[in-house]
Amino acid sequence: MGVSFVSYLNDFRLNVAARLLSSNDESILSVAENCGFFNLSYFNRMFKKKYGVTPGRYRETRIRREKLISEYTLQNIREGRTVTLDTINTICRLTGL
Predict the structure, then answer these.
(1) DSSP state of 85
(2) Interacting residues of 9 by C-beta distance below 8 A, sequence separation 6+
(3) Residue-by-residue DSSP string for 16-60
(4) Fewer CB within a 10 Å sphere, N or C end of the chain?
(5) For residue 92, how many C-alpha atoms fall within 13 Å in the half-sphere facing its CB?
(6) pTM value?
(7) What are the angstrom distances between the C-alpha of 19 and each of 24, 65, 82?
(8) In whole angstroms, what is the distance from residue 85 CA to residue 55 CA?
(9) Packing angle of the helix pair 55-78, 40-51 (nearest 10 deg)
(10) Sign of the C-alpha dihedral, residues 56, 46, 37, 15?
(11) 72-96 b/e with 16+ CB inside 10 Å = b?
């Protein structure tokens, strides 16, 4: 298998935390606790190690990305243009999101 149970469990919990941070406005402490991390410092350290950013920065970036995608999609639909996933991904990459 190659991965310890604790490593697997932490990775699973961090994936759930990332989804929660993207989908609701619960406090970071609440998200951490709901995912089984009862030490906020440890959660922040593990999250940053996995995703390269703090949980707060991750949430901010996801919100900006979703807003950009929504605005771009609506503008193009109004103008009768086709919106492709490749174009959206390119825009997000170019804007650093």
Answers:
(1) H
(2) 36
(3) HHHHHHHH----HHHHHHHTT---HHHHHHHHHHHHSS-HHHHHH
(4) N
(5) 19
(6) 0.73
(7) 9, 14, 28
(8) 26
(9) 50
(10) positive
(11) eeeeeeeeeeeeeeeebeeebeeee
Q: Which positions ≥6 away from 64 have C-beta within 8 Å?
A: 97
Q: Is the pLDDT of residue 94 over 80?
A: no
Express each pLDDT in 67-83 by its tens digit: 888 888 888 888 888 87
Token pair, residue 25, equals 């406005």
Amino acid at 75: Q
The answer to whether 58 and 21 have CB atoms below 8 angstroms apart is yes
User: What's the rounded Cα separation, in Å, for the pair 85 and 75?
Assistant: 15
Q: Which amino acid is at 53?
A: V
